[in-house]
């Protein structure tokens, strides 16, 4: 295995093989234990219709039910956060049904994003690029989830996992901002395995991953934007051999996005000088 590949696998905590039942169990228990230890009243999470939030949502609902069964109080609030109407509305509805949260809210981020974009245009003098508007959508989704969490004593779940973390493929302080990461250490195919194990329909576990942030290219596949396949990223994270140019691309993205996996740089820190 390549030296840097091993460093990355160790840093992200990926296991080459998993037992889906055991992984579901330890992640549900992690979510339940964290509520017990902190005294928080439950969780909130955006449900997009994509497989990561479907999985994390189902784990969260199972965790709060487990706590209630043992006499505790906990609630899970799922939040649909469309920018007006999603192109994959039916997938989002199917995900909400499968997650079966205690409560489901729908919070349209379009008024916030559009108001923000308008003020940006007035202030800066040029329109915001579609790319930056996409990151703004991700950040306002974060703001909405923290508003619900703050008012009700809940914690915000993030869906970051190893296959996104390694490439820094998330919006810094957007979907990258959360209180707890129940999918950490999993690659994409392991997320799928867990969702299958939980009995989700094929439509949910086989869904093509998309950040779905762009007005001008709705539902653009992550793999298209990354120029990498999840098959390759997953193989790399399981310590398998991938073509050299693929490994180099993954390692380069991991290196360049280190700032996203740390707290803001302080004066005595040196990691960034390496
Ligand atoms: N070396 C450095 N040290 C400290 N900070 C640094 C930095 N380089 C950039 N930055 C900061 O980071 C910012 C860039 O990061 P960021 O704002 O995240 O922007 P960026 O990484 O350019 O874009 C986010 C990417 O994540 C993808 N995404 C987003 C959300 C969800 C998903 C998904 O998979 O569903 C994917 C999205 O499609 C896009 O490709 C810069 O504007 C700068 O402020
Ligand atoms: N339209 C949306 N509605 C609600 N939450 C969203 C929406 N888009 C993104 N999110 C939140 O941002 C997170 C990051 O998006 P991301 O695309 O990585 O995950 P996903 O959509 O759940 O799965 P996939 O990566 O397979 O598309 C989601 O898990 C979800 O919590
Ligand atoms: Mg998605």
Automatic annotation (TrEMBL):
<feature type="binding site" description="in other chain">
    <location>
        <begin position="259"/>
        <end position="260"/>
    </location>
    <ligand>
        <name>deamido-NAD(+)</name>
    </ligand>
</feature>
<feature type="binding site" description="in other chain">
    <location>
        <position position="172"/>
    </location>
    <ligand>
        <name>deamido-NAD(+)</name>
    </ligand>
</feature>
<feature type="binding site">
    <location>
        <position position="179"/>
    </location>
    <ligand>
        <name>deamido-NAD(+)</name>
    </ligand>
</feature>
<feature type="binding site">
    <location>
        <position position="164"/>
    </location>
    <ligand>
        <name>Mg(2+)</name>
    </ligand>
</feature>
<feature type="binding site" description="in other chain">
    <location>
        <position position="139"/>
    </location>
    <ligand>
        <name>deamido-NAD(+)</name>
    </ligand>
</feature>
<protein>
    <recommendedName>
        <fullName>NH(3)-dependent NAD(+) synthetase</fullName>
        <ecNumber>6.3.1.5</ecNumber>
    </recommendedName>
</protein>
<feature type="domain" description="NAD/GMP synthase">
    <location>
        <begin position="24"/>
        <end position="264"/>
    </location>
</feature>
<feature type="binding site">
    <location>
        <position position="52"/>
    </location>
    <ligand>
        <name>Mg(2+)</name>
    </ligand>
</feature>
<keyword id="KW-0436">Ligase</keyword>
<keyword id="KW-0547">Nucleotide-binding</keyword>
<keyword id="KW-0067">ATP-binding</keyword>
<dbReference type="Pfam" id="PF02540">
    <property type="entry name" value="NAD_synthase"/>
</dbReference>
<feature type="binding site">
    <location>
        <position position="159"/>
    </location>
    <ligand>
        <name>ATP</name>
    </ligand>
</feature>
<comment type="pathway">
    <text>Cofactor biosynthesis; NAD(+) biosynthesis; NAD(+) from deamido-NAD(+) (ammonia route): step 1/1.</text>
</comment>
<comment type="function">
    <text>Catalyzes the ATP-dependent amidation of deamido-NAD to form NAD. Uses ammonia as a nitrogen source.</text>
</comment>
<dbReference type="InterPro" id="IPR022926">
    <property type="entry name" value="NH(3)-dep_NAD(+)_synth"/>
</dbReference>
<keyword id="KW-0460">Magnesium</keyword>
<dbReference type="InterPro" id="IPR022310">
    <property type="entry name" value="NAD/GMP_synthase"/>
</dbReference>
<comment type="similarity">
    <text>Belongs to the NAD synthetase family.</text>
</comment>
<dbReference type="InterPro" id="IPR003694">
    <property type="entry name" value="NAD_synthase"/>
</dbReference>
<comment type="subunit">
    <text>Homodimer.</text>
</comment>
<feature type="binding site">
    <location>
        <position position="188"/>
    </location>
    <ligand>
        <name>ATP</name>
    </ligand>
</feature>
<keyword id="KW-0520">NAD</keyword>
<feature type="binding site">
    <location>
        <begin position="46"/>
        <end position="53"/>
    </location>
    <ligand>
        <name>ATP</name>
    </ligand>
</feature>
<dbReference type="InterPro" id="IPR014729">
    <property type="entry name" value="Rossmann-like_a/b/a_fold"/>
</dbReference>
<keyword id="KW-0479">Metal-binding</keyword>
<feature type="binding site">
    <location>
        <position position="210"/>
    </location>
    <ligand>
        <name>ATP</name>
    </ligand>
</feature>
């Amino acid at each position: 295995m390549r030296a840097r590949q091993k460093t990355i696998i160790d840093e992200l905590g990926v296991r080459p093989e998993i037992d889906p039942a055991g992984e579901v169990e330890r992640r549900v228990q992690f979510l339940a234990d964290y509520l017990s230890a902190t005294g928080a009243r439950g969780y909130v999470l955006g449900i997009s219709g994509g497989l990561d939030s479907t999985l994390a949502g189902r784990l969260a609902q199972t965790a709060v039910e487990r706590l209630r069964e043992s006499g505790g109080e906990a609630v899970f609030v799922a939040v649909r956060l469309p920018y007006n109407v999603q192109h994959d509305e039916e997938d989002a509805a199917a995900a909400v049904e499968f997650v079966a949260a205690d409560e489901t809210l729908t919070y349209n981020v379009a008024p916030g994003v559009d108001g923000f974009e308008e003020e940006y245009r007035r202030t800066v003098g040029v329109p915001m690029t579609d790319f930056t508007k996409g990151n703004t959508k991700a950040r306002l989704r974060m703001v909405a989830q923290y508003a619900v969490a703050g008012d009700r004593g809940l914690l915000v779940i993030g869906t970051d996992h190893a296959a996104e973390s390694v490439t820094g493929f998330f919006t810094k302080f957007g979907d990258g901002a959360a209180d707890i990461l129940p999918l950490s250490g999993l690659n994409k195919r392991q997320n799928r395995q867990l969702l299958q194990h939980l009995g989700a329909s094929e439509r949910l576990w086989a869904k093509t991953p998309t950040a779905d942030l762009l007005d001008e290219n709705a539902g653009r596949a992550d793999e298209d934007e990354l120029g990498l396949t999840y098959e390759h990223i997953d193989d790399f994270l399981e310590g398998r051999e991938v073509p050299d140019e693929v490994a180099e691309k993954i390692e380069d993205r991991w290196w360049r996005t280190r700032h996203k996996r740390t707290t803001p740089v302080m004066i005595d820190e040196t990691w960034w000088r390496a």
